[in-house]
């Protein structure tokens, strides 16, 4: 009987390919497939849209290991119908995204954003540089998972008071206090910084909207590094144009790439970054710790030991 296939949709280093072989000797490892081989794929590492129908039509796919933390782009309903296991890469981007957030905050509070713009036109205008102090600020992390907890750990050393929002308001490590997501609009008036780190689900769709923005401090900062669809873009633009709050640092968008005609490019109180907060040094090593641990448990008894996604919840 021909061995089932582990389909790697990303090129991994030779050392990791060998570790996969050692753990799963009864599988073939493939990085490219001909049409007849899709029916033999049991494990998919990564998910490319052009292969999705062939993989799902085979009915032999048993497990997908996502290379990303967010999985809202995957056909979760079909996975549930076909009893396909799904695991994500949650946690490996936590330090990178935390540093990105801190960098954007310091760029705003210490006037670095304006200094860069002035440098382009050879302008020496220290009197026009906006500055403030990050220490002592109240920061609300909307999403207290791996990334939120790492952000709290990193930024508390700078004297920031960190609060959290999650589904139920359950306690989480490193937060002064946590609140239920249904109470977010009541909490934001006390916050200097609001950071969105939410997955894309039906419950989180457009959760950052005019109701939230109109309750924020005029001096507040909004940062979004979660999923673009958690943000109501049109209502954000309106809020920024009338200066309901001071500044937005956006790394994710409802439409990517961000269209050239979007007003967000031109607004002075916006920093646009092209979905780079999750770029991670030594990604392969961090990712493989999750995948190889899962592969060991899957080969042993068909279960996943790390980061299994609840398909109905989407995370």
UniProtKB/TrEMBL annotation:
Residues 17-304 form the D-isomer specific 2-hydroxyacid dehydrogenase catalytic domain. InterPro entries: D-isomer_2_OHA_DH_cat_dom, D-isomer_DH_NAD-bd, NAD(P)-bd_dom_sf. Residues 103-277 form the D-isomer specific 2-hydroxyacid dehydrogenase NAD-binding domain. CDD domains: PGDH_1. It holds the Pfam family 2-Hacid_dh_C. The keyword Oxidoreductase applies. Belongs to the D-isomer specific 2-hydroxyacid dehydrogenase family. This is 4-phosphoerythronate dehydrogenase.
């Amino acid at each position: 009987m021909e061995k089932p296939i582990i389909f790697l949709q990303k090129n991994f280093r030779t050392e990791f390919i060998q570790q996969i072989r050692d753990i799963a000797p009864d599988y073939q490892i493939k990085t490219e497939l001909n049409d007849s081989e899709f029916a033999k794929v049991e494990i998919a590492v990564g998910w490319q849209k052009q292969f999705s129908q062939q993989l799902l039509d085979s009915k032999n796919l048993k497990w997908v290991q996502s290379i990303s933390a967010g999985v809202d782009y995957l056909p979760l309903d079909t996975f549930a119908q076909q009893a396909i296991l799904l695991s994500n890469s949650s946690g490996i981007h936590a330090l990178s995204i935390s540093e990105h957030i801190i960098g954007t905050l310091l760029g705003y509070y210490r006037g670095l954003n304006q200094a860069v713009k002035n440098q382009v036109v050879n302008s020496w205008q220290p009197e026009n540089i906006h500055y403030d102090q990050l220490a002592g600020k109240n920061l609300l992390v909307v999403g207290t998972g791996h990334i939120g907890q790492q952000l709290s750990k990193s930024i508390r050393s700078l004297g920031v008071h960190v609060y959290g929002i999650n589904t139920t308001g359950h306690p989480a490590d490193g937060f002064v206090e946590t609140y239920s997501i249904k109470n977010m609009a009541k909490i934001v008036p006390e916050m200097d910084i609001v950071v969105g780190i939410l997955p894309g689900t039906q419950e989180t769709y457009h959760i950052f909207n005019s109701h939230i923005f109109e309750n924020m401090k005029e001096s507040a900062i909004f940062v979004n590094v979660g999923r673009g669809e958690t943000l109501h873009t049109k209502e954000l633009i309106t809020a920024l144009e009338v200066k309901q709050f001071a500044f937005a640092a956006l790394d994710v968008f409802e439409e990517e790439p961000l269209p050239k005609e979007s007003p967000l490019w031109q607004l002075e109180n916006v920093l646009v970054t092209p979905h780079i907060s999750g770029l991670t040094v030594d990604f392969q090593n961090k990712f493989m710790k999750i995948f190889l641990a899962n592969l060991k448990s899957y080969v042993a008894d068909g279960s996943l030991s790390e980061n299994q996604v609840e398909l109905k919840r989407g995370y």
